Amino acid sequence: MKPPRYRQSGRNMLFSIPNQLVLLFFSLIAVYPVYYMVITAFKTRQNWLHDQFGLPNPITLQNFADAFSRGNIPLWFGNSLIVTFFSLIASTAVSALAAYAIARFRFAGRAFYFNSMIALMVIPPAVLILPLFVLMVNISLVNTLTSVIIIYSGLLIPFSVYLLVSFFRSLPSELFDAAAIDGCTNLDTFWRITLPLSTPALVTLVVVNALFVWNELLIALVFLQSESAKTLMPGLTTFKGHFTLNEPLIMAGTLIATVPMILLYLFGQRLFVEGLVAGAVK
Amino acid sequence: MPDKKPSTGITFRKIEPYLYLAPATILVILVFIYPVIKIIQTSLMQNTASGVKVFGFYNYQLVSEDPVFWQALRNNGKLLFSVPIMTLLALVIAILLFEHVRGWLVYRGLIFLPYILAIPVVGTTFVYLLGLNGIVNTMLRSLGIGFLAQDWLGSATWVVPSISLVIIYRELGFGVVLFLARLMSLEQEILEAAEIDGANWWQKHFYVTLPQLAGVIEFFIIVELITMLSWVFAYVFTMTGGGPGFASTILEFYIWKHAFAFRSPGIASALAVVLLAATTVLIVLQLRLRRRSLEEAS
Question: What is the rounded distance in angstroms from the CA atom of residue A270 to the CA atom of residue B93?
Fold first, then answer.
């Protein structure tokens, strides 16, 4: 990304020291809880009791070993990966198709459909969980990863369609005309032209949606109640309940759950930023 | 295809977009439309002694007589006050970042970091930070104002403001990134012209920068208002469990409690319809805003 184009002129440089201090202050606040989580996760419980805020002394890896052996964290971690993977595949596929129809065709009900998508973004999941739960019980999907994959895929559609429609509309229409002249069917044009050209938008969308699915608690909590079906977020709340008196162990668990998103952030900070900004208005 | 009969071609062309919409539509009906209809229906039904369900507003009457419901509603209302605070803070930080080339990427990266953390992770960590001997109280004591130290999440007075603060902590970075992106797309000449005309820092940003940011500020405010009504469950669940007592119970949490802990689907449904009604106002705002942005883009 480009640096800000506007630079403060020289005579104002004196003001920059307080500005730096303000920014430093907010950066420290932003980072401190993560820092606290990391130092605590490497402490023994004794060490934590005597010195909550200092660096770990001695540094121990026991909490991580315990988190893996005494809890179901590896299992939950795997479940989270499965749920995130399939929810993203399903929601992206159906949303891209729908967005293509909205962006490229004229048909009755198009405006209504698109407006409905925008409106649905506002509906709180808490409103939906009870009827969905009854439904999932009736079709025996409670405590299966399938249940949450279906729900997440559906929940992600409105935002995904919205984002992709605005992107597809920005592609030059000459390309589509040329494809039509060359005898491409609409499905060909979707698959061979629209999707490849939309790779940046699709990657951005997947990253933002991955963050949502990986971090979601309420739905996972309601639909995955058995130990073996849990994903990381409801798993962590159980884990916390089991080891209330072992703070470093709990922090090790939360740190393990956070690592994938931190990695994603380190490698794709730009994508997060673009994804969140793309949904916004000028 | 050239060898296709025109008549079938026209028919296919007519239904083609609907075929593309079909998979998404099925999922949306399953996950959104069906539950919303069902929840309204359930909220209007009551069980009679004979086991037959009859139509009525009994559930709503029970809800309206429940002080915890009013408490939850008030708490959601209080959370809305964190929106102007985080908007202002995000604006100031974004403008500072914008004026500061040196290290701005690092600052932005750090300030945005909380937004990628899971709410259960943030909540769990803040339980320690806001605890009796947590960093907040320790800092207050070392500053010589230890009398201000509190059991932040255990006090009925302080629990909602404390949760607000944690929400602001996590959401602030989103605002900063949004505003900064918009600032970077502004025409630099206008700001320079204002400077040449002798505008000071405040005048420059108040009269020149802010008006141009109006759209994105409105967007952020609406998104955050939605968040305060629809996405705070995980904070309350992991930090306080709605307590002490019901002091930090919010609508989402109370719906969940009635649906899955108290096993009273009728009341849970009535509560859900109330929450839905509250968000409807935001749906209208959202529609207006998003439509406008698309028109501008196309």
Answer: 19
* Helices within A121-217 (DSSP H only): 125-138, 145-170, 173-181, 186-188, 195-197, 199-215
Tell me, what CATH number does B255's domain have?
1.10.3720.10
ipTM of this complex prediction, to 2 decimal places: 0.87
Q: Which residues from chain B sit within 8 angstroms of residue A258, using beta carbons?
A: 117-118, 121
Whether B15 maps to a domain, the answer reads: no
Q: Which domains are delineated in chain A?
A: 16-60 (no CATH), 72-278 (1.10.3720.10)
Q: What's the token pair of residue A93?
A: 């596929």
Q: What residue type is B169 in one-letter code?
A: Y
Length of chain A: 282
Contact between A217 and B111 using a beta-carbon 8 Å cutoff? no
- Residue of chain B minimizing CA distance to A101: B17
Q: Are A186 and B15 in contact (CB under 8 A)?
A: no
Q: Pick from A102, A132, A165: which is nearest to B35 by CB?
A: A132
Per the CB < 8 Å rule, is A97 touching B24?
yes
Instruction: Give a yes or no: residue B41 inside a domain.
Output: no
B262-273 burial code (b ≥16 CB/10 A, e <16): eeebbbbbbbbb
Query: In terms of residue numbers, what domain contains B219?
Result: 61-297
CA B70 to chain centre: 20
* B206 assigned to some structural domain: yes
Q: Could you give the CA distance from residue B4 to residue A155 in angstroms, rounded to a whole number? A: 39
Per-residue pLDDT of chain B (298 residues; tens, 9 = 90+): 455 444 555 677 788 889 999 999 999 999 999 999 999 999 998 776 666 677 888 889 888 899 999 999 999 999 999 999 999 999 999 988 888 667 788 888 899 999 999 999 999 999 999 988 888 888 888 888 878 888 899 888 999 999 999 999 999 999 998 898 888 888 778 878 888 888 887 888 888 888 888 888 988 898 899 899 989 999 999 999 888 989 999 999 999 999 998 888 889 999 999 999 998 888 887 787 777 766 655 4
Which of A30, A115, A273 comes nearest B114 by C-beta? A30
Q: How many domains does chain B have?
A: 1
Taking the C-alpha atoms of residue B175 and residue B216, their distance in angstroms, rounded to an integer, is 9
Q: Do A236 and B117 touch (CB under 8 A)?
A: no
